[in-house]
Design a protein that fits this description.
Layout (H helix, E strand, L loop, with lengths): L12 E5 L3 H4 L1 H12 L3 E5 L12 E3 L6 H14 L5 H7 E2 L1 H8 L4 H8 L3 H13 L3 E5 L1 H4 L4 H15 L9 E3 L6 H6 L16 H11 L11 H10 L4 E5 L3 H4 L3 H10 L2 E6 L11 E4 L8 E4 L4 E5 L12 H11 L9 H11 L16 E2 L23 E2 L18 E6 L15 H6 L5 E3 L1 H7 L6 E5 L4 E8 L7 E5 L12 E4 L6 E2 L3 E7 L2
Parallel strand pairs: 1-2, 1-5, 2-3, 4-13, 5-6, 7-8, 8-9, 14-18, 15-17
Antiparallel strand pairs: 10-11, 11-12, 14-21, 15-18, 16-17, 16-21, 19-20
Helix pairs in contact: 3-6, 3-7, 3-9, 6-7, 12-14
Length: 526
């Protein structure tokens, strides 16, 4: 997030796009509700009638995969009416002319045809956002999980820069991360192209810095992302896989392909707190400790680094993840001798400029938001005040591209996936909670009542959902939360695994699969 969670309640316009905030990030949603109580305008762009839409001043339901067109249309209106912040554009950005030329091709009437959003609603969204004193953008995986995910995010950055709604209190572009420490994992280099703090592996000076610190020869080659790893397992170029705290047998698209890949591994290690469907395929399972059984830190979606303190000793043979990895490394011939997570954090601070001032003795209480470059620095509440990290903010000229897969006669319905308030991700933890499991013990398929009547389907009837990759059987839930021609499924349930159906086509840059759009057909189960 460019800004902090608390700032949301002081915005006077909030655009929520691709985020079912009350279900996936309820504490963030409380800040949005507070802003609404203070008089903020709330604009929701989501194909489903999510709970937050009930509180919205305007809810638009764009067709799946049309976010770039919608955002370009909003910006075309802003430019046509002179509502943009020309001073901000001139002083703090570059690439504006090429960007402007592209947006000219997205007048509201054309965008309405692409997105299904009324032209007048597009004009209203543009006026409210551009004229606000402080407007915030909130988005989540409804924006990123597309083959155009990077384009979607860049379009949101364009919108914020165009109006100068960034680098100030209660403004900015604010992604809500998918799990509690996804931000921290990325910060610590759990990506194939960077060390900690997003320091690129293929820059010689950075490579030399880490080689000297670790007394080891390091490669300058960028590694594989998950799609490349899975393909490599099938093809034989990848021989072994070490999975930590991840459950690709439910979380990755085209699960049948995932299973084939994992079964192809010569050696599969899974480190987790439960025996997940992925762990059931492993040659070796290493029992990790839960958050309550270890010391450490989490870095949350607003860049806040916070202490995690051990409440109980690890149960059974479980160990903290850092202890397991340290011993594995030592047995491979590279000894690690950290005595505590605090010592690890000290090394992180030495090697990571954005974490340079973060030490355990400063993390009592609310923690610190990075960048925090030295021990006298108070942390950074919001980013890009006065200047962008790269100097000038870069506008991108982005054309709308349709989803990788479209509907046809054989697969005439759109399917999108997401979360519900009761369960989280693959249900590894929440479905092991008796109270949460009792609240929602099985999966379901949202289907518009018109489509349900056409198929002769009633609430609770079993239906077969078929895509080009496989099929599942699940109970139907007729509801106007989805529009005719659109289906929705939560992906938490192994018995009705939505990701058997989803498309593994991925964004060419970020390699994120297109979970949010695929073509299916619906049949009444025998």
């Amino acid at each position: 997030m460019t800004n902090s969670i608390a700032e949301l309640e002081n915005a006077d316009c909030i655009l929520v796009i691709g985020s079912n905030t009350t279900s996936s990030h309820p504490l963030v949603a409380t800040r949005i509700f507070r802003a609404k109580e203070k008089g903020a305008r709330l604009v929701i762009a989501d194909p489903r009638k999510i709970q937050l839409a009930l509180k919205a001043d305007l809810h638009v339901r764009q067709n799946l995969g049309t976010d770039v067109a919608l955002l370009n249309g909003i910006m075309q209106v802003i430019l046509a009416n002179g509502w943009h912040n020309q001073a901000f554009v001139d002083e703090r950005t570059e690439g504006f002319d090429a960007f402007r030329k592209v947006t000219e091709d997205y007048p509201p009437e054309r965008v309405a045809e692409i997105t299904g959003v009324k032209a007048d609603d597009i004009r209203t969204m543009a006026e409210w956002y551009a004229k606000a004193q402080a407007a915030s953008i909130v988005y989540c995986m409804g924006i990123t999980q597309h083959t155009t995910g990077v384009d979607n995010v860049k379009a949101l950055a364009n919108l914020a820069m165009l109006t100068g709604q960034i680098g100030r209190e209660a403004t900015g572009v604010n992604p809500l991360r998918g799990q509690n420490n996804v931000q921290g994992a990325c910060d610590m280099g759990a990506l194939p192209n960077v060390y900690t703090g997003y320091q690129a592996v293929n820059i010689p000076d950075i490579q030399n810095k880490f080689q000297a610190a670790w007394n080891a020869k390091l490669s300058d080659k960028i590694g594989l992302t998950i799609p490349g790893i899975l393909s490599g397992l099938v093809e034989g170029s990848v021989k072994a896989l070490y999975v930590v705290g991840e459950n690709p047998m439910m979380s990755d698209p085209d699960v049948n392909h995932v299973e084939k890949a994992l079964r192809s591994a010569e050696f599969l290690v899974v480190q987790d707190i439960f025996l997940t469907p992925t762990a059931e395929l492993a040659h070796v399972v290493l029992p990790g400790a839960s958050f309550a059984e270890k010391d450490g830190t989490f870095s949350n979606t607003e860049r806040r680094v916070q202490r995690v303190r051990k409440a109980i000793e690890p149960v059974g043979d479980a160990r903290a993840d850092w202890e397991i990895m340290q011993e594995v490394s030592t047995r491979f011939g590279y000894p690690m001798n950290f005595r505590s997570p605090a010592e690890i954090m000290d090394e992180i601070a030495r090697l990571t400029p954005s974490y340079g001032g973060i030490t355990y003795d400063r993390l009592d209480g609310e923690g610190l938001c990075w960048p925090c470059p030295n021990k006298d620095h108070p942390g950074t509440k919001f980013l890009h005040s006065g200047r962008f990290t790269r100097g000038l903010g870069l506008f991108h000229a982005i054309e709308y591209k349709p989803p990788a897969e479209t509907i046809d006669e054989e697969y005439p319905l759109w399917l999108t996936t997401g979360r519900v308030h009761v369960h989280y991700h693959t249900g590894t933890m929440t479905r092991n909670s008796p109270s949460l499991h009792a609240e929602m013990p099985e999966g379901y398929l949202e289907v518009n009542p018109e489509d349900a009547r056409r198929l002769g389907v009633r609430r609770g009837d079993e239906v077969r959902v078929v895509s080009r990759r496989g099929h599942i059987v699940v109970k139907a839930m007729p509801t106007d939360r989805v529009e005719p021609g659109v289906l929705f499924m939560p992906f938490h349930f192994v018995e009705s695994c939505a990701n058997i159906l989803t498309n593994p086509a991925h964004d060419p840059i970020a390699k994120i699969p297109e979970y949010k759009v695929c073509a299916v057909r619906l049949e009444k189960a025998a």
